[in-house]
């Protein structure tokens, strides 16, 4: 299959009006009859939010016999953070790579700012910045030199480079780091430089693959603030993650992928509200035999306050219950188990999370799906190693 590169798209750098132009405002009250910049900005935002900045319809992409993406559709609007959540191997990176013109799809319609990814890739690259999962800094270069190199790769006119670099360094609070070698940076600073490089050509859409993977919580929070700031300035941001709380916290809307397909889409609130109810997770024993878990499942499913009961085999056959009134439900559950002579090892209650959305659709948690994917990868690797011996 024809691969179109491996890092990010490059642009001529002077094709798009900078979004920041609308934000550079002279603070004064408009005279009568004048249109305030705020009004202009609002009407601009309103107009732009009606347009889909990113459109993916029925994307399909295989690598030989492996179907990486079976059927993915999503639409992101201007000024929106759009999340793509899913376990390892669910097709997140492949979706992004197709969108960013780095991988050629087998089928589907993909558009960025009204331009076709397949037929107008050079225009798409002008509108879009891609920050890949692996941080691509050269250790010997200083941050300044790295950005100069990136600016040249983006074909930004020479005369504009110093001010563009100054602007991204200031925007990402990196001025103090510019003259130090990249090899001395922490993971969080490296990631911010990578983000800075993705912003040099002033894209309207920023696509980020796992922007905070491996970072400590403080560095993650810094990146989150940067992303919120960029969104406030009108950028459309698409990000993949398998950190549930990150997607929940940041995304206006999201899709959840599983095995290359969209299994849920909407705002985090909508998705959680749709599955409804509070959650009760209980274990009959620390490691409950399957039969006993099934007995408890049948018993508890009969309670009127229990809407559904799933057995999670990956968690020692624990039971995941959706209940209507948590206080009433907990009392009823304890009573029912006691009357049936079943023990109760542990019980916890929680509000629905995006993991529950995934669990409701697939029957397993994201963590379990990640573990299963890792085990599959390990066993493939093991087989390969054995065959090589
Ligand atoms: N270049 C490739 N050649 C062969 N198979 C690939 C290639 N890229 C991805 N795949 C396979 O396609 C499937 C989807 O991979 P993809 O990287 O898109 O998933 P992902 O959700 O981004 O996972 P991760 O979170 O691990 O990056 C996986 O089974 C993966 O092994």
From TrEMBL:
<feature type="compositionally biased region" description="Polar residues">
    <location>
        <begin position="8"/>
        <end position="19"/>
    </location>
</feature>
<dbReference type="GO" id="GO:0005524">
    <property type="term" value="F:ATP binding"/>
</dbReference>
<dbReference type="InterPro" id="IPR003439">
    <property type="entry name" value="ABC_transporter-like_ATP-bd"/>
</dbReference>
<dbReference type="Pfam" id="PF00005">
    <property type="entry name" value="ABC_tran"/>
</dbReference>
<feature type="region of interest" description="Disordered">
    <location>
        <begin position="1"/>
        <end position="20"/>
    </location>
</feature>
<dbReference type="InterPro" id="IPR027417">
    <property type="entry name" value="P-loop_NTPase"/>
</dbReference>
<feature type="domain" description="ABC transporter">
    <location>
        <begin position="54"/>
        <end position="284"/>
    </location>
</feature>
<dbReference type="InterPro" id="IPR003593">
    <property type="entry name" value="AAA+_ATPase"/>
</dbReference>
<keyword id="KW-0547">Nucleotide-binding</keyword>
<protein>
    <submittedName>
        <fullName>ABC transporter ATP-binding protein</fullName>
    </submittedName>
</protein>
<dbReference type="Pfam" id="PF13732">
    <property type="entry name" value="DrrA1-3_C"/>
</dbReference>
<keyword id="KW-0813">Transport</keyword>
<dbReference type="GO" id="GO:0016887">
    <property type="term" value="F:ATP hydrolysis activity"/>
</dbReference>
<dbReference type="InterPro" id="IPR025302">
    <property type="entry name" value="DrrA1/2-like_C"/>
</dbReference>
<keyword id="KW-0067">ATP-binding</keyword>
